[in-house]
Design a protein that fits this description.
It comes from Camelina sativa (False flax). The chain is 44% helix and 8% strand. β6 and β7 form a beta hairpin. The chain is globular and about 90 Å long. Strands 1, 2, 3, 4, 5, 6 and 7 form a seven-stranded mixed β-sheet that branches. It has a five-stranded mixed β-sheet with strand order 9-8-12-10-11, covered by helices on one side. The relative contact order is 0.11. It binds guanosine-5'-triphosphate (GTP) and adenosine-5'-triphosphate.
Length: 715
């Protein structure tokens, strides 16, 4: 949820980290800002999609002093110091920046030392030797890769994390305006592809975020323009606009140019002539793999949506795991950005489609954003779903909270506490605040059967201090500033929760009328609460039991995202100083032989989730690691309707299709995210003939052995 790091932040002098007085900017809070026209309109998407409003204080005084003010600010806290003079469009961008897990400016000096020569756009813009890239990127197995569509279904279980060393395009620090291109922008016929509308779109994007001046991003923009030319959205906008908005969302969380480029191209494989190889040639394997990953995710998501698969909790759980495990976490990030923009423009679709999308988003994508720790997207997705799925409750809640929300309250509460702490000589790492989102309030009311007046954490502050002693001292300060609500003090430091969660919680009354929850913890405790056993995503998912595989996968995915997105990387400085929580191995330099790296085909002990489509019905099935297609077939087993009276498989099972291609080897190992079709589209009339042929083979003794022991399937 909150805040605070950008490269500009790291470039600020360490002395300013915790001690500088901060002016808190005002901000647009859709729910609370009564002056906002959008807030009062029931149909306003803005009011429902607004993220929580995190406000942060902590060494940000020089945050906006960098020359790259726009990009650095865009990837920083939404509500930190000195944004008053920003343009309204930039402020719009900033709305997207309230991120969950980050509050740390603990070692800016280190980052400064490490990164101050780098592009302000991304700390990871440095060139990375190609030896870091996993070999699979270029040495592709040809057996299942004939044609573009088959590519979509191949090789997705590559190292989810190997990809984190993939920065082919990251080295570009070239910053260009639209008219300064150093490469030709012509199509195959030598026609200048820079259509006026595209030029305008790009110019506007460049005003909103510096990364759109990056040469590779501009090139991708024009490739996307070519690919989607003539294609319109249901809203009537050119399709290209969706590509730009998707990329903008990514840029706003600090994603580097590789991810932004892939964001621009994310639909090209599905919607146009553009092939994997074309993207590979023009943008490198990193981008091509990401686009391919997004494409695969889109196809699975469509299948799930059409089959209403995620309405079953077990299958939804498997889908969350599958999505994160089968593709690079950055592909999930792009898919989330794509979905967020689609949700923002959902009004253009038919009511039936709106419901379907909203349902799937709530079941699959919001939880994924939660797992990745991208709180701002999670909040927006949930609020938009809420609005479409329960419009009456949504309206009611909006109206109710419009009357009680007070945005100024949090900013002034932060100021008050900041001053009091200073007076007492208590230093802190982070002081931040947030409004609870509309959907989160609604869910809490339902879950705990409470009225809105009984929710005490609609307004919340979080204070991160140096040590346990300071936690208690700060608690005393909090209680001296505001009056304590009796019975609401919880000391999870002395008495940690069963999952190890530690923090002090208290509820106080601001102005004697509005409850304010204050959480106080150390950096270590905060890290545990974000990344550790007590991680917030797990807390939010409830009493689920997770396999170690799932836990490891989410941990990795979060690390990948955190390390690739500056705005989410606030915890890095914490982590570097933490003894108890270390990344599974050192990012971003881990390589194939890193013992901790995720190797799906060797060290992975499963399980594997596979999409099975049978008689046009989709299910997500779990198999032990190393299961084969043959194992999948045998699961149906004799006695099932799909086995003929002779005990041999009927024709359909003899030609199962794996990832859209006929299976050539039944010993083929199933991989996370594989799609197995058990009902190939064979015309009915051919079945009888085919079964007879099988029967003849069987009679001649050429038949296959019993299920489960079938040997290789020809090839
Ligand atoms: N990361 C993490 N956060 C937690 C956990 N438990 C509680 N929290 C945070 O602490 C807040 C309040 O928790 P509690 O004080 O235990 O409150 P409660 O009794 O569950 O309910 P309320 O007082 O109604 O919020 C939650 O809203 C979370 O933000 C946990 O296990 N992990
Ligand atoms: N008092 C607080 N101050 C600052 N941030 C908070 C505070 N309480 C929760 N958060 C953060 O706000 C984000 C959204 O949390 P949300 O309000 O949806 O749920 P929660 O408060 O953690 O849990 P619950 O709804 O069960 O009480 C999370 O990232 C959470 O860590």
């Amino acid at each position: 949820m909150v805040v605070a790091t950008t490269i500009a932040l790291y470039a600020s002098p360490p002395s300013s980290v915790c001690s500088t007085p901060h002016q808190i900017s005002s901000f647009d809070l859709d729910l609370s800002s009564r002056s906002s026209s959008s807030s009062s309109s029931p149909s306003s998407i803005a009011s429902s999609s607004s993220p929580q409003k995190p406000i942060v204080v902590g060494g940000l005084s020089s945050l906006f002093s960098s020359a790259s003010v726009k990009s650095s600010s865009s990837s920083s806290s939404s509500y930190s110091t000195g944004v008053d003079d920003f343009s309204s469009s930039l402020r719009d961008d900033l709305k997207d920046l309230s991120l969950t897990s980050s509050f740390c400016y603990s070692s800016p000096a280190k980052f400064r030392r490490d990164h101050h020569h780098q592009s302000p756009i991304s700390v990871f813009h440095g060139p990375v030797s190609s030896s870091c890239s996993p070999p699979m990127r270029t040495a592709r197995d040809g057996s299942f890769r004939v044609g573009a569509s088959s590519r979509l279904f191949h090789g997705f279980v590559r190292k989810a994390l190997g990809s984190c060393v993939d920065y082919e395009l990251g080295s570009s620090s070239v910053s260009l305006l639209v008219d300064e291109l150093t490469f030709p922008m012509e199509d195959d016929f030598g026609v200048d592809t820079r259509k006026p509308y595209a030029r305008d779109l790009l110019r506007r994007a460049q005003l909103r975020h510096e990364i759109f001046k990056d040469e590779s991003v501009i090139k991708a923009f024009y490739e996307a323009e070519k690919a989607h030319r003539g294609q319109m959205r249901a809203s009537g906008d050119p399709y290209l606009q969706h590509c730009v908005e998707t990329a903008m969302l990514l840029a706003n969380i600090g994603a580097n140019s590789t991810v932004v480029v892939a964001g621009l191209l994310h639909d090209t494989m599905d919607d146009s002539f553009m092939s994997y190889d074309y993207i590979l040639r023009n943008f490198g394997a990193g981008v091509a793999d990401l686009v391919e990953g997004v494409s695969k995710l889109s196809q699975l998501s469509k299948l799930a949506r059409e089959n209403n698969t995620a309405c079953k909790t077990v299958e939804a759980d498997r889908l969350h795991t599958m999505f994160l495990a089968m593709a690079d976490a950055r592909a999930v990030l792009i898919k989330l950005a794509d979905r967020l923009h689609n949700m923002k423009t959902l009004y253009a679709l038919s009511p039936v489609k709106q419901q379907r999308f909203a349902k799937e988003t709530l079941e699959i994508f919001a939880p994924l954003a939660n797992r990745l720790g991208i709180s701002t997207w999670k909040v927006q997705l949930e609020n938009l779903c809420f609005k479409h799925l329960h419009p009456d409750q949504h309206n009611e809640m909006s109206t109710m909270l419009e009357d009680s929300f007070d945005e100024a309250m949090i900013t002034s509460a932060i100021e008050k506490l900041e001053q009091a702490l200073k007076k007492e000589g208590i230093s802190y790492h982070v002081l931040c605040g947030r409004h609870k989102s509309l959907y989160s309030i609604y869910s809490k009311m339902l879950k705990k059967k409470l009225t809105v007046d009984e929710i005490h954490d609609i307004h919340g502050l979080r204070l991160i201090v140096d040590n346990e002693g300071d936690c208690y001292k700060a608690l005393g300060v909090v209680h001296s500033v505001w009056s304590e609500v009796p019975g609401k003090l919880k000391d999870y430091i002395t008495d940690p929760k069963f999952n190890g969660y530690q923090s002090l919680h208290t509820v106080v009354m601001d102005n004697g009328t509005v409850p304010l929850e204050v959480q106080i913890r150390t950096q270590e405790m905060h890290l545990q609460a974000e990344f550790g056993f007590a991680a917030h995503w797990r807390y939010k998912e409830g009493d689920c039991k997770y396999s170690s595989f799932v836990l490891q996968m989410v941990e990795w995915a979060r690390w990948v995202v955190t390390w690739h997105c500056e705005a989410m990387s606030k915890d890095r400085s914490f982590i570097s100083s933490s003894d108890t929580i270390k990344p599974p191995c050192k990012f971003p330099s881990h390589s194939e032989d890193c013992p901790a790296s995720y190797k799906p085909n060797s060290s992975q002990d499963g399980p594997v989730y596979v999409i099975v489509i049978e008689n046009d019905k989709m299910s997500v099935q779990e198999f032990p690691a190393s299961s084969t297609v043959s194992d999948l077939l045998s699961r149906a087993g004799p006695g099932s309707s799909r086995w003929s009276m002779y005990g041999i498989p009927a024709k359909e099972e003899l030609r199962p299709r794996l990832n859209q291609r006929p299976v050539s080897d039944l010993k083929w190992k199933l991989k996370m995210g594989d799609v197995v079709e058990l009902t190939p589209p064979i015309p009915d009339e051919s079945l009888t003939e085919y079964r007879e042929e099988i029967q003849r083979m069987y009679d001649r003794g050429l038949a296959f052995s019993r299920p489960g022991t079938m040997d290789g399937w020809g090839s």
